[in-house]
Structure formats: C-alpha cells, structure tokens
Automatic annotation (TrEMBL):
Residues 236-518 form the ComEC/Rec2-related protein domain. Keywords: Cell membrane, Membrane, Transmembrane, Transmembrane helix. It is a multi-pass membrane protein. It comes from the Bacteria. This is Competence protein ComEC. Residues 29-192 form the DUF4131 domain. Its main location: membrane. InterPro entries: ComEC_N (IPR004477), Competence_DNA_uptake (IPR052159), DUF4131 (IPR025405).
Length: 719
C-alpha cells in the first residue's frame, strides 16, 4: 500500500476511469441527484482535508476523495455527451424536413463518396426554423458533388438516419464507435438534395492545420511515385489511409506492424525520442538551455500535430509526450508511472470517451509495458558496449528488441481480444520495421519541410531527387513487411478470447512476474490456478465447437452471403464481389468465425454453375439459382432478376426461400411455384423493394425475415 501511494496519479486515474465506466453503464441516473451528491461530497472532502491532522483517518479521507473523483468523472462524461443537450438536433430527428450543416473536419475520399463529419446548426420542423447543435456523419456522392472543404455550409433536404447497429454476429460495432465521437446519425447526399450556401471555417486553428495538411499531401502526391509508396507516406505522415491497398494493410497486420500505418503515439514517440537525443546537450546548459530545449521540442511536436490536421490520435499523443517532456526536463524526482498516469488523467478529463478508443488503450498499455517489463528483460543479455562499435550496435539492437517485447507483452491480451490474430514473427519483424518506419517518418517530415523551401526557388530537380530517395526508403520498408508476410505461418488467425479470459491473461502475466521477482512458492500456486482456469475454459470451448452445426444467412448490403459451420470447418457461399473483398469478409465474417473457433474455410461463388457435395452441404448452382441441402434442411436461393416473368420451376418445396439482388420484385411471381416455410429477403435488396416484399408477405400471412432490418438469421441444426 505504501509503495502504491508513491504513485498518486495512478490511483487518481483508476478512480477517474471507474467514474467514466459508471456513466457508460448507468447513464440514466438523475443528473441533478448526481450534481447534488457531488456538491455534498466536495464540501465533505474539503472539510476532511482541512482538518486532516485532527481527524487522522486517512482511509476515510481517501474514500471520500475517491467518491469526489468518481462523481466528477460522471459529470464530465455527462457534459461530454452532446446528445444530453436540449438543443441537440436528435430531439427532433423524426420531424426534420431540412437542415443546415457545416463541414467541421477533414474530408476523406472513399470509392464512391466523400466522407466527413458536420455540425448541424439549424433544422426545419413543421415550417419552423430551430437553432440546434450536434454532429452528423455525411457521405457526398463524388459523381455528382465536388469535394467539400472544411467550413463549407450546405442546406440539406431530408432527415438524418440513425447509424445502424451491427447486423451480423460479432460484427464491429460502428454505431458505438461513432457514438463515442458524439456522432449518432448519418446521411448520404446527392446534388439534388443539397445546396451550398457559403464557407465559413468554424475554427481558425483547425482550418490552418487542414491547409498545412493539404499542402503536404499535394507535395507527396507530386513527388512520391508509386501507389503503395505514396499510400504509406500519406498514412504515416498525415494519417490518411485511403490510398493503401487491402493487401498491403494485411501484410503490415501479419507482421504485427499495422500501427505503423496510422499516426499515433509511436510516431510522436519517435519524433520525441530523436529530438531529445539530438538536442540532449542543451539540457546540460543550465536553466536557459532547458527552456530552449523544452520550447524547441514542444514546438516541433505540435507542428507535427498541425501537419496531421490535429487528428485525435496525434492530439492525444502530443499531449502525452508534452507532459513527458516537461517531466523529463524540469522534474528532479520524476517517476515514469506517475507522469504516464498524469497524462492519461488530463486526456480523460478533456474527453472521457477516449478510454473506449482502442488506440488510446494500446498506446498507454505499450508505454506501461516499456516502463515495467523492459527493465526486467534487459538484464537477460548483458552486452559490454565499451568493447567496440559492433558491441555497441548489438547492445542497441538488444534494447530495441526488449522494448518491442515489453510492449507486446503488455498489449498481447488486448490485441487478441480486439483483432483475433497474432503475428508469429513479431520478435524479428518489430525491431526492423520500427527502425525503418522511424527513418521513413523522419525523412518524410524532413522532405515535406525542405520541399516547400526548394519549390519557393523552383529547385524542382532537387525536390524530385529527394522524393525518389523517400520513395525507395518506403519501398524497402514495404518489401520487408511483405517478406515477413510470405513466411510460412506468419500469422495465427481466428483467435478468440472473452473479456474474462483477457483479464485472466493479465492476471497470469503479473503472477509470473511476481514469481520471477519474489521467488515465493505461493505465486507458483496462484499462477497454476490462472493457467488451470484458462485451460478449463479453452477445453470447454473446444468441446462445444467440435459439436457445433450452424447456418447463418448474413446481412451484407449490396451482397448476398451464407455461411455454414460444421465443427471447425466453415463454408461461405456468396457473390464474387463479396468473396474477392478482403475488407468485406474481414468486417462482416472474420470475427464471427473467430468466435466459433473456425480453422478451415472454403469459398464458393453463388453465381457460378456447379455441383458441390461435401461433408457440410450439398449445393447445386445454375443460372443464378442455387439449391442447398444442409442437415435435412433445404434452401432455394434466387439471385437472377426475373423482371416481369414468373419463376420457371414448378412444385418446388423448400424450408427457406432466399431472395437476393432484386430477383423478385413482386411475390406474385413465385407464389404457387415454390412452397416454403420461411421467406428470407436478404440485404442486397434496396430499402424500397425490401419494404414492398415485406408488406406483401405480411398481407399474405407468410413467415418472413428482412435481413436489412433484423440482421443475420442464425439457424441451428436442431431447429
């Protein structure tokens, strides 16, 4: 307890997080009750603190202080939730006919649209203009609308649509992800729905940052040749991953280096460490030297934040390392744990929702891992760096390796929990990738600055040469990553652990560390208990998975997909566009397969003509129509547009009739031709046709499921 008390901000941060979690799970507590309790606890804590020498009850003072922080965190979380404000547009979301919105962030380019967020400033409800607030996610059709700019003001016809919840089992919860950013609604806009009425950037600083971002992007576009090379430069320097191919991102993921492709704590940390090393001599030049050192590094860190357009991940990391910088230069008795916790405390007070951000969690876990585990790992191999330069290089490589391993240990359970895979060669890949990516980052930033100066004097040939140097440096990084991906068994996929198992893994890690440090026999039994618990859970899951037989008709907009799972084997039937898209399969299916313990998968195109029979399903597909037999159940999938014709087959009897791709636009085309127990309208249908068929099925008294509304349909063997 006395040891823990030396880290006050670690304790404060833990208590603050408890208050944030309290709001997340109990958001409906009467806010005036919470405010009244906060006022009472504040006065009580002030009284106890003032008379602490007379009361002499540290436990009581600590308890009341903790209550004060928990209630403060609840209040801050409530205030941060913009939907609680009475003028928020969502209070009239169903009655809105028109609204005025201003683009308030960086505009991203997607395949068929421009994506950005906007602030709704006013709405029209029942011919009344109401002043409002609140963010919305906007998609502008890029075939009919010019690229919006920060500060553009649009008058929009239509009402915002709520961002839908996940429609497939274990699918990434994009609704909650955007809700954490105070965005709950979205709208797709075409030229006929909008009218641009002006441009007035709401924030001068952000507008300035985005202009710098656009200028650097134009330089990279012009002078860094090659789609992948430009994509990596854009991702690492500016934080925009729009131009990265899915194959390259998968390669970085397999090497355990996907974090390299997004501006984050790693990038800010690299800049911070390099600058601190280059300018360390200033620290020895007294008070003046320290002031110059602080403001120089501080200015460069925040300049980088502006280059990225003040994106949230870099903003968090810049605040964190700014606090580290102050502690490094000015604190005599600095403590790494306290400094790290203080930075987290400040960031969470600024935005409590950051605690639910995966990047925030991984950043602080990695920093904690470096602080805690690296000093334990470093003495395992002692290298006398004073012998010669070879030993000095070896010592540096070993230290980088221990840093990478320390960060991996701290983030391992969370990484498996969120991403369901593990890069098997991370120990070898990470030191190399971190070194090369650091060179690329510093070279890229240097190039962005120098190119602006060189272009002022029309020195294009020199700028071209520097751009080529940066290009080949990135090419070396990409080829290194791809080489690791091509190695056999480069990544273990489809890993799945529950929240409880994740915490068990952390408990096991710390019990093993305690055993290593204390050499006490009690920790052997504690560690064995955690191992036994994990083993039992894993054994129980394997028994269940070996016996599972499951069919799931997925809800995939613009696509049609069905997956069958037998034990640890899975088959997915879908259209070619879905099967060829790593992004779609990764987003819609992979997490689900991971949760079921799938190891082997087979992909089959529903639109091809073939007959396939295996130990899971029997499929006969012809002319965009498929008959599927699975465990005494029969499915008829129709993917061909019948137009105004009737279904050609007669007297067909199946358990499930699946309609896809607007194949049937009126149920009269198939009624009497096909006998079925349940009608499935899959998500490839547009909303209008899906509603039409649903209404017809309702009138006819048919059992039906509209996948675009209800989500995926799971059918078990015994149903």
């Amino acid at each position: 307890m006395n040891h823990f008390s030396t880290f006050p901000f670690v304790r404060y941060c833990i208590v603050l997080i408890c208050g944030i979690l309290l709001y997340r799970f109990l958001p409906l507590l009467p806010i005036y009750f919470v405010l009244g309790a906060w006022v009472f606890i504040s006065f009580l804590y002030a009284f106890l603190f003032i008379f602490r020498r007379k009361i002499k009850n540290q436990l009581l003072i600590g308890f009341v202080g903790s209550l004060f922080l928990i209630l403060s965190a609840y209040e801050v979380s409530f205030l941060n939730d913009e939907m609680n404000y009475p003028q928020h547009y969502t209070h009239w979301s169903k009655e809105i006919s028109h609204y005025e919105v201003i683009v308030d962030n960086l505009v991203e380019e997607k395949e068929n649209s421009w994506k950005c967020t906007g602030e709704i400033r006013s709405v029209i409800v029942d011919n009344r203009i109401l002043s409002t607030s609140g963010k919305i996610l906007l998609y502008f059709d890029n075939h009919s609308v010019e690229k919006p700019r920060y500060g553009d003001i649009f008058f929009v016809k239509g009402k915002p649509q709520e961002i839908s919840s996940p429609k497939n089992p274990e699918e990434f919860d994009y609704q909650q992800y955007m809700r954490n950013q105070n965005v709950g609604y979205q709208q797709y806009l075409r030229s006929e729905n909008i009218e641009k009425v002006g441009n007035k950037p709401p924030e001068i600083l952000i507008n300035f940052a985005l202009r710098i971002n656009a200028r650097v992007d134009s330089i990279l576009t012009t002078f860094v040749e090659g789609k992948n090379q430009y994509g990596v430069a854009n991702a690492m320097i500016l934080g925009q991953r729009d131009d990265l191919s899915n194959d390259l991102m998968q390669a970085y993921s397999a090497a355990g280096a996907i974090h390299v492709l997004s501006v984050s704590g790693l990038h800010v940390g690299v800049i911070y460490a390099v600058l601190l090393w280059l300018l360390k001599s200033l620290k020895k030049k007294g008070k003046t030297g320290k002031i110059i050192l602080f403001w120089l590094i501080f200015s460069i860190l925040w300049s980088y934040a502006f280059i990225t357009g003040l994106s949230s991940p870099v903003l968090r990391s810049t605040i964190m390392f700014s606090i580290f910088l102050f502690a490094e230069i000015y604190q005599k008795n600095k403590d790494a744990y306290n400094t790290t916790a203080f930075s987290a405390f400040c960031i969470l007070l600024y935005n409590p929702n950051f605690i639910f951000n995966v990047g925030f969690q991984l950043s602080y876990l990695a920093v904690f891992g470096m602080i805690f585990f690296q000093p334990l790992l470093n003495p395992i191999l002692v290298i006398d760096k004073n012998k010669n330069w070879i030993y000095r290089i070896a010592d540096r490589i070993w230290k980088v390796t221990t840093v990478a391993v320390a960060a991996q240990i701290a983030t391992l359970p969370v990484t498996i929990y969120y991403f369901h895979q593990f890069p098997n060669y991370f120990l070898f890949a990470n030191p190399i990738v971190i070194l090369l990516s650091s060179i690329v980052l510093m070279a890229g930033l240097g190039f962005a600055i120098l190119a602006n100066l060189l272009l002022l004097f029309d020195l294009i040939s020199i700028t071209n040469f520097l751009g080529q140097c940066l290009k080949y440096t990135i090419l070396l990084l990409n080829e290194t990553v791809l080489w690791f991906e091509y190695l056999p068994l480069s990544v273990t996929k489809f890993l799945w652990i529950s929240t409880y198992e994740m915490w068990l893994m952390y408990a096991l890690i710390f019990s093993l560390i305690a055993l290593w440090k204390t050499r006490k026999y009690a920790w052997v039994w504690i560690s064995c208990g955690f191992v036994g618990n994990l083993f039992f859970l894993n054994f129980h899951e394997k028994l269940q998975r070996n016996q599972q037989e499951l069919c799931t008709i997925l809800s995939t907009p613009k696509h049609s997909a069905i997956t069958f799972v037998n034990g640890k084997n899975a088959i997915i039937l879908a259209n070619k566009g879905f099967l060829d898209s790593r992004k779609e399969i990764g987003f819609r299916v992979n997490n689900y397969w991971s949760s079921l313990g799938v190891r082997d998968t087979l992909k089959l195109d529903l639109l091809e003509n073939y007959h396939s029979k295996n130990n899971v399903v029997n499929i006969r597909s012809q002319d965009s129509t498929a008959v599927i037999s699975w465990n005494n159940k029969t499915f008829l999938w129709i993917g061909k547009n019948l137009k105004h014709k009737d279904f050609e087959a007669k007297n067909v009897s199946v358990d499930y009739l699946i309609l896809a791709n607007k194949s049937v636009k009126d149920l009269s085309q198939i009624i009497g031709k096909v006998q079925f127990e349940k009608l499935i309208i899959d998500a490839s249908y547009t909303r209008w046709y899906a509603d039409k068929l649903s209404n017809q099925a309702e009138e006819m008294g048919l059992k039906y499921v509209d996948l675009s509304r209800s989500g995926a349909l799971k059918i078990k063997n015994n149903e």
